[in-house]
Specification:
TIM Barrel, 21% strand, DNA polymerase, domain 1, binds S-adenosyl-L-homocysteine, ten-stranded mixed sheet, alpha/beta, two-stranded parallel ribbon
């Protein structure tokens, strides 16, 4: 039988498996804290356990620990990009962003992605596999250890569609917010989705206090279908209904992400159409000038047009910010570092 990963288990499960091994209950607490508070890389580092117990753990379980293969720091803004290798040699990327209000980590939820958004580098090679809860967590653990910086906010906005890896995402949130782990507040976690409607409703029913971000990127279904294949499955109307339900259930303000692509979705008429789509919702719009990727010829909307788009929304009392571009000098944008690494290493 394949060994189970101890780091993806919640505390109850750790207790159960330790009980099966005939170990006392307090050992489970020690082991759990070694993994999720002291952030050790190996069973060997659990020094208050006897050598025979450490050996038994290794015989019975695995302990996920990512290996850093590359780290790049932006000279401009201190943003730090990490490339990690998984136990099957696949690589994923994560980003540490330092803000005045605290440190934020952007993590990946899958290796690759199957959503196929036209402007996104992460989906070019399709989906390779889901990340386990421990592989999601360890991106944060390693970044906290390596940088020596306490992580206060987590955004699930790296490679992958988190709601396409739903069960593992949920376990990840459970462990990340556990008071015996990093104890990060649900309010400091953002999950971004391209809009898997049934999953948004399921998430709403859980009534978590996390922020839900919707990658909308278009004011109507025709444009959305041109740039996001998922729009053929779910209409904007269905998405709006689902996030309205999310707000009713959780009271959490919705974030809409809108990447501006020159000539595609950035005209004044699009801003006006968008106002009608989201009118009446308690929401916030994040405008992002698209990061061009070399595989596609999408261009970034010029800044004064972005500003104009913002003004139109603001005049209609919609909360809107323009997302600061961070780490552009280190391929930090949207799957680009992993992509360039893969291109170099697979030829
Ligand atoms: N699959 C999820 C989360 C990962 S993508 C989602 O779709 O939300 C995180 C955000 O970056 C999404 O809003 C996505 O549309 C956006 N994005 C991807 N590639 C981009 C690019 N080249 N320029 C700007 N935004 C991009």
């Amino acid at each position: 039988m394949e060994k189970q990963d101890l780091k993806s288990m919640n505390f109850e499960q750790v207790k159960e498996v330790m009980n099966q091994l005939g170990e006392k209950a307090f050992r489970s607490k020690q082991i759990y804290e070694w993994m999720h508070q002291k952030l050790v890389n190996d069973f060997e580092e659990m020094t208050n356990l006897s050598k025979p117990l450490r050996d038994r753990l290794r015989e019975n379980f695995t302990l996920t620990s990512l290996r850093v293969v590359d780290k790049r720091e932006s000279a401009k803004d201190g943003t730090c990009k990490f490339l990690f290798e998984l136990s099957d040699n696949r690589v994923i990327e994560s980003v540490l962003m330092k803000y005045k209000h605290g440190n934020s980590v952007c993590i990946s939820s899958q290796v690759g992605c199957r959503m196929g958004c036209r402007f996104c580098a992460s989906t070019l090679g399709g989906l390779e596999r889901n990340l386990t809860p421990a592989e999601m967590l360890d991106q944060i653990y390693k970044i906290q250890k390596i940088s020596g910086e306490r992580v206060s906010n987590v955004v699930v906005m790296g490679t992958g569609e988190p709601l396409d890896n739903y069960d593992n995402l949920n376990r990840f949130i459970e462990l990340l917010t556990d008071e015996n782990g990093l104890n990060i507040s649900q309010r400091n976690i953002t999950v971004s989705t391209c809009g898997l409607v049934p999953r948004i409703r399921e998430l709403a029913d859980q009534q978590l206090q996390i922020t839900l971000a919707i990658s909308l990127h278009a004011p109507n279904d025709t444009i959305r279908r041109e740039i996001m294949p998922i729009a053929n499955r779910y209409s904007i109307k269905e998405i709006i209904d689902a996030v309205t339900y999310y707000y009713q259930k959780t009271g959490r303000r919705i974030t809409f992400e809108y990447s501006l692509v020159e000539g595609v979705n950035d005209k004044e008429e699009h801003a006006k159409e968008l106002i009608h789509v989201i009118r009446g919702l308690n929401c916030h719009v994040n405008l992002i000038p698209v990061n061009p990727i070399k595989e596609r010829d999408f261009k970034q909307t010029q800044m004064h047009f972005v500003q104009n788009f913002k003004n139109i929304l603001e005049k209609n009392r919609i909360n809107v910010t323009i997302r600061r571009e961070m780490g552009a000098d280190i391929d930090a944008a949207c799957g680009q570092l992993r992509k360039s690494y893969m291109d170099e290493h697979t030829n």
